[in-house]
Automatic annotation (TrEMBL):
It comes from Plantactinospora soyae. Keywords: ATP-binding, Carbohydrate metabolism, Cytoplasm, Galactose metabolism, Kinase, Magnesium, Metal-binding, Nucleotide-binding, Transferase. Gene3D superfamilies: 3.30.230.10, GHMP kinase, C-terminal domain. It is found in: Cytoplasm. ATP binds at S74, G129, A130, G131, L132, S133, S134, S135. This is Galactokinase. The active site is at D179 (proton acceptor).
Length: 390
């Protein structure tokens, strides 16, 4: 198990800027990756989610540029990309990792804002493709930097929708609003209870240390399998089910109406998708109730039930994450579930602080027995959302 990462990421972004542009940045901005405690695939159904920000983050060193092209250097990609207004104006003209940056410029223009031209250097310690929302961290960091550089007064509550628009409209990924909200609106020692319809938030105290607990995050390293297509297919199934049921979104189906709703749907696959979303929304509400009451260990069974629902009804888990959940539970975790969009990524396990290491070892042993690539684990503490660092 590795501890919290050291954070030379700020220095790496600054050094990258100086190397790429031969000058000092005007400032440094950071935005975190997230872990979703519970509430999976509920965001685009107008439902409820409960993420918290990781201490792992993407840092942008930036300065205004008097020219007409945005220039971005990325440590992870090992390259520099530049694009002008015309490329930013047309989704698809900038591809790869830089599309997330061009997408933010595009979304700001689309919102009628006068985006400042800038030079940026990006470094990150959010693992890529691990379901910890490295994309949202990149969008949120760039968005926060550009808004500050341009002295553009956009309320924090309105920012996640701009970052989501970059991803939906420019990158072409039909994600919901959870990840961008988490990266922008989360606070240390709290989980963010977000109503994805009204965008109202409640900062729910989630002080694991005070409760003698730890949240173990296990990166399954499972190769992502058809992620984009499967995600879009789940979203389409949910939206067509809502239309068939005559409701704006599956959020409008309560658990007391579930049996009646299921009886009205012919397709057994669609019925399972609906059951996941409806029961998952209820699990989020129950988790929030327990956290409000300070009964942290009692959320364990809800986490595990969420995993079972993702495995059996939403069908988005893979053997590696199922194995991690089973091994964590067998080693004494209060509860465990996959977090994020699915088909790989990370598992979280709620454990007594002293059990974090043994549970991580038990998962590693189960992986070795099944011949899976060794997982990596760390304990996560809720950190701050996007902000200016200097
Ligand atoms: C991905 C998406 F980006 C989110 O919007 C959300 O739907 C999540 O999968 C599943 O809960 O992270």
């Amino acid at each position: 198990m590795t501890g919290q990462p050291d954070e030379p990421v700020t220095e790496r972004a600054t050094a990258g800027f100086t190397r790429a542009y031969g000058s000092q940045p005007a400032g440094l901005w950071a935005a975190p990756g997230r872990v979703n405690l519970i509430g999976e695939h509920t965001d685009y159904n107008d439902g409820f989610v409960l993420p918290f920000a990781l201490p792992r983050r993407t840092v942008v060193a930036a300065a205004p540029d008097s020219g007409r092209r945005w220039t971005v250097w990325s440590e992870q990609a090992g390259e520099q990309v530049s694009f002008g207004r015309a490329q930013a104006a047309e989704p698809g003209r900038v591809g790869g990792w830089a599309a997330y940056v061009a997408g933010v410029v595009w979304a700001l223009y689309e919102a009628g804002l006068d985006v400042p031209v800038a030079r940026l250097a990006i470094a990150s310690d959010v693992p890529l493709g691990a379901g910890l929302s490295s994309s949202a961290a990149l969008e949120a960091a760039v968005l926060t930097a550009l808004l500050d550089l341009g002295k553009l007064d956009v309320p924090v509550a309105d920012r996640p929708a701009l970052a989501q628009r970059a991803e939906n409209g420019y990158v072409g990924m039909p994600c919901g609003i959870m990840d961008q909200s988490a990266s922008i609106r989360c606070r240390p020692d709290h989980a963010l209870f977000l109503d994805c319809r009204t965008l109202e938030v409640e900062q729910v105290p989630f002080d694991l240390g005070a409760a003698g607990l730890a949240l173990l995050v296990v990166d399954s390293h499972a190769p992502h399998r058809h992620v984009g297509g499967e995600y879009a297919a789940r979203r389409t199934a949910c939206e067509s089910a809502a239309a068939a049921l005559g409701v704006p979104a599956l959020r409008d189906v309560g658990t007391d109406q579930l049996d009646t709703a299921l009886a009205r749907l012919d397709d057994p696959v669609v019925r399972r998708r609906v059951r996941h979303v409806v029961t998952e929304n209820q699990r989020v509400r129950e988790t929030v109730e327990l956290l409000r009451a300070g009964r942290l260990p009692e959320i364990g069974p809800l986490l595990t039930a969420s995993h079972q629902s993702m495995r059996d009804d939403f069908e988005i888990t893979v053997p590696e994450v199922d194995t991690a959940v089973e091994a964590a539970l067998a080693a004494g975790a209060y509860g465990a579930r996959m977090t994020g969009g699915g088909f790989g990524g990370c598992v979280l396990a709620l454990v007594d602080r002293a059990a974090a290491e043994p549970v991580a070892s038990a998962v590693a042993k189960a992986y070795a027995e099944r011949g899976f690539r060794a997982p990596t684990s760390f304990t996560a503490v809720p950190g701050p959302g996007a902000r200016r660092l200097s």
